[in-house]
């Protein structure tokens, strides 16, 4: 019973992390069809913002050091979103409709970002302290303790998801965004500034990557190449989920999280990951457009 | 029109011939160190051609070409390792506590098996994966992402299965190949010449293939797959064959790489190196086989030169290079050649069409 509960919790935890890192991608890749290989580096920016906020707190307001994290979350969103905005205006808008070219160009961006991070923060990983109120765990029953930082990440993932859902489906801005993504020409005709919407949408996706980076700080040390560890997973989640629907992303993050932890439990850690990826590829063979997909009739 | 394109083709053959002559003469004016570096780049050039065939002509951008390069390289490395170990167990197996040679290592005692396997195993793996992927009509960026995931999976496997693969350190410490000592200059020079010959053969094979009826269908599939399918062609088999051939050639590159460089490890074939391979083709100019060779030589030459003199600046430069190539000269080096030579601008060949593919998708998207 304990083992089962623990497995469920672990799956949830892994799924929530996957969801966080994939949410931003679900917007930039899923909605805008932009293959942003620099997504991992936007995660990295979020992580380093958290690190910088912590250092600033240590230096100037050591008394309230515990609350640095609450400042870091919105700040990492904003900084990453700003970088995403620059990226869209400076590069990606020239490459719409050329997904493979976008992939290569953003890979170039990701190399530059990584090197900048290396030059500023040094190549070795840096440690971000978990605030004291996220240390320890909640004892659910005897012998079963759930770590607080993992619970916090689950909560954060849910908050982000709800936030995005409300923004997309219950706000005027979100409505314009969906309009542009579904039929750009028609939306433009109706007076929606499509170029601007593109930039904002991309910025929001990037900001979510920043939040993911902030969350990753709770799990371990961060370094310049932190993004590359997660980028493939994030893409797999979005591809498995099916493009263009949030619910698919959630479901896919859940499925991959469960597969990962279950296989890991049954075999070794590396084999767990391999088997999970093999399952995903096998699944795509059966349902190429992912778990949930928009029904379209386009053909080339 | 025909004469112009014929002229272009002849010039490309001329360029290729010139390149081969220079490469064959290289041992006379290069130091041993530079020659071994050049040999390494040439094996990369073979991989670049294989990728160009797949991406430039077939429209399938594989972000997992490193895997096939690696499968070829590991096949060769297993043979070399067994030669170096003699009748004993390879050293890393001893360290990991194995007492007996794993069954799948045994056939690699034979050179002919290893050499054959280095081409056939990648081709077979690609054929199986390609069949699964293409049959369910996964294409475009989805194909790219899946091949990238494949690269990740294979590296995880290689690192994780330390006793069988040497783990993170890879396989190294070779001594002889077919009885010749690998540390001898003459062996290395011979290997260099073999590499040049293989490169030439691979180029000629791909040039012949892309100019043939098969190549035309391949280009048609790249540009409008559904229409080709409606015309009655089995596009899946064409793509699977191209993918398998490309993987086999990449494996050949890997097999030539190992004896000359002396090591193969997961870090050389993972996600990042696989993307770098794509960059060679993009820089050289995709859809022009000669461009792939040039791209591999230029990028790697610049990389080793710059990382010798400014180790930190290389990543910045590489990043800027990608962006500049994509934004400014989408045809790569060959595109610049073509722009300089205005008379060739009117060729109605596949290369001239390449940039317009993006535009047509753009229109359909918007």
Automatic annotation (TrEMBL), chain A:
Keyword list, A-Z: Amino-acid transport, Cell membrane, Membrane, Transmembrane, Transmembrane helix, Transport
Membrane topology per the record?
A: Multi-pass membrane protein
> Family, per the entry?
Belongs to the binding-protein-dependent transport system permease family. LivHM subfamily.
InterPro entries found in the cross-reference section:
ABC_transp_permease, ABC_UrtB_bac, BCAA_transport_permease
Question: Which cellular components does GO assign to this protein?
Answer: plasma membrane
Q: Where in the cell is it found?
A: Cell membrane
GO MF, any single term: transmembrane transporter activity
- What's any GO biological process attached to this entry? amino acid transport
Membrane spanning stretches: 12-35, 42-61, 67-87, 151-168, 200-222, 234-259, 265-286
Q: State the organism's lineage.
A: Bacteria, Bacillati, Bacillota, Clostridia, Neomoorellales
What's the protein here called?
Urea ABC transporter permease UrtB
From TrEMBL, chain B:
Question: What broad class describes the main subcellular location of this protein?
Answer: membrane
Topological category with respect to the lipid bilayer? Multi-pass membrane protein
Transmembrane ranges, per UniProt, are 12-31, 37-55, 67-89, 109-134, 141-160, 190-210, 231-257, 263-282, 313-337
Any Pfam family hit: BPD_transp_2
State where the protein is found.
Cell membrane
**What PANTHER family has UniProt attached to this entry?**
HIGH-AFFINITY BRANCHED-CHAIN AMINO ACID TRANSPORT SYSTEM PERMEASE (PTHR30482), SLR1201 PROTEIN (PTHR30482:SF4)
The name on file for this protein is Urea ABC transporter permease UrtC
